[in-house]
Structure formats: structure tokens, C-alpha cells
Amino acid sequence: MATAPRPRTTTRDPQELGRRLTGWLDARLPGARVTGVEVPASNGMSSETLLFGLDHPDASVRACALRLAADPAAYTVFPVYDMARQHRVMRLVAEHTDVPVPRVLWLEEDPTALGAPFFVMERAEGRVPPDVMPYTYEGNWLHSASDAERAHLQDATVAVLARLHDGFPAEEAAFLLPEGEGSPLRRHVESQRAYYDWVVDGLPRSPLIESAFDWLDKHWPADEGPAVLCWGDARIGNIVYDGFEPAAVLDWEMAAFGPRELDLGWTVYLHRFFQDLTVSFGQPGLPDFLRRDHIEARYAELTGHTPGAMEFHTLYAALRHAVVMLRIAYRQLHFGEVRAPEDPDALILHRGSLEAMVRGTYWS
């Protein structure tokens, strides 16, 4: 983990993007100057982020962030990058709730300007729990914090989910439903099956992922619960914190209309992913942080909704993460960054955890 090569995240030149962005902005703020263009070290492998300053006397925002759809030529992680959808979700969240989201400014759906659709938002200031090396490792601000400070961050993060799920009018999120028939949860799972089929098209299929889909079918919750707006990528690595308080909630590309437990399961499992890896490399990690029982209890206190079918939803989160990881691994193979193993399941970093979930031994 400490020595694995970081996958290539972009094929674009940030300085060239900055020059083209200046030309695009000039039509909206004549004479505007783009300054300090940079690509953050934590840039993702789906849509890309560009940070820049905006110098213009009429600019209401000076520090900006631009989210740019992935380069179609760069073996994208997802088949579709709907920037208008993300822009709409963030605008509606700001309109209907007090969840801190960056103020969205411009949306550009024409790919001519920068090579792909994008939107510009106000840049959030603060600090983010790192993914590389993960915050469960020693040597970062969250690991070095006190137990009380981490507990505060945990409770404040769960409160973000509670306020989003309770505060956003459910009917306003129905546009996020995938096409098809059945309940919101059924449609969500079927959309993930379709994504998996896209990932393995012409490539080796994953017996583990397919066994996990079979497990879902056999353990479907009797009561799916009400559908709400779900953030989708609900993890602390997508929040900018001011001290230990959430200052900005980022990355809404996976937003969905479904049970609250979609977010809760993702929050629980994405921490377990880092925690399990850290333990496997001989470090204790943060075993008392973001525990499933603590998250469930705190969420119930805040909302009156007792989370249900959480083994289903944490396994589903691990399954969804496995599909993404398989795509990223095939992307690395495409760029010659790794060699293909005989067993495609070996490309799934949390293989052991997902196998234990399917066996029913993970939480025992």
C-alpha cells in the first residue's frame, strides 16, 4: 500500500486549461484574469478538479474550483459524466437545506471550451482527511487529533447526513431515479449491475462481485425504507473541515434518490476500507472511529429513523466500491501501470473483506 504506484489521474495540461479558461471567462467577465492555476494532489480519477484565482473588480468570488468531466480518451472510470446533474444537485441542496455546499457559479455544457463539460464553484478553505496515505495511518492531522476531537468530527459528519435526508424535500430528488421499473433501491442496484457489465465488457469478469450481487438478491430487505436525497459519495474524505466542523460537502456525482442507508452504509464501509487495509499492514489505525454502531445510534438520535438492513447496505457499499476498483485496475492495465493477474478478483484491494461479508463472517 505504501509503495503501490498512484494511478494516473489526468491526461490534461493544467496550464493549457488555464489559458483556455481565461478565454472562456472573458465572455462572461470581460478582462477577467485567471491566476494560480493548480491541480490538487488529491485529484480524483473520475471528474477532475482545477483550482484557480479570479482577478476582476466585479468578481463576487476570488478563489474558485472547477469540476471538469473526465477526458473521454483517458479510459474513464464512469461511462457518463453529467455535470449539469451535479450542478443542479448542489444548487438545490443549498436552496433547501443548511448543509454546507460550495456556491456554484457557472455551468458550461458545451465541451468546446475545455474539451468537456464543466462547472465553476467557490473554493472551500479548510482541510480534508487524506486518502493517500489514508487518515487511518499515522502522520496526518486527523490521526493526531484527540479522541474527543475525532468524536466531534464524527458526530458533526453524521449530522450532515441527517440534515440532508430530513431537510431536502424528497419529491425534488425524484429526477435522480435511474430509468427502469421497481423501487428506488431496486433501480439503484440494477444501475450498478449495468455499470459492472460496462466495466467488464470484453474483459475478465469478477466471480466475487457476481457472488455479492447474488447475495443481495437473497438478502433483500423486507422494508426498504423511504427514499430521500442521498449524497452518494458520503465519506469524510469528501468534506472540507474547518477545525473539526464540516465547512463544505463535495463530490455529488453519485447523488441518488434512495433509502437513507445508501449513505450510511457508504460512510461506514469507506472508513472500514481504510481501517482494514491499515490493520493488514501492521498498524492499529483508528478502531474506535466511525464505528457502525456509533453511526447508527447517532443517526437515530438526530432523525428518529433507526437504520435498517445495515449488513445489506454495507455489503452493497463494498460491492459498489469493488466495481469502481476493478475499473480503476483495468484502467491501470490499459496504461501499462500494472500487470494483469490470472485471477481478476486479485485486482480488488478489499477482496478479503467483501468475501467475509458474502460468507456472513465480517461483522462477527
Automatic annotation (TrEMBL):
Any Pfam family matching the protein? APH
Q: Which domain of life does this protein belong to?
A: Bacteria
Which species is this record about?
Streptomyces melanogenes
Q: Give all residue intervals belonging to the Aminoglycoside phosphotransferase domain.
A: 82-276
What's the name of the protein? Answer: Phosphotransferase family protein
Which stretch is the leader sequence? none
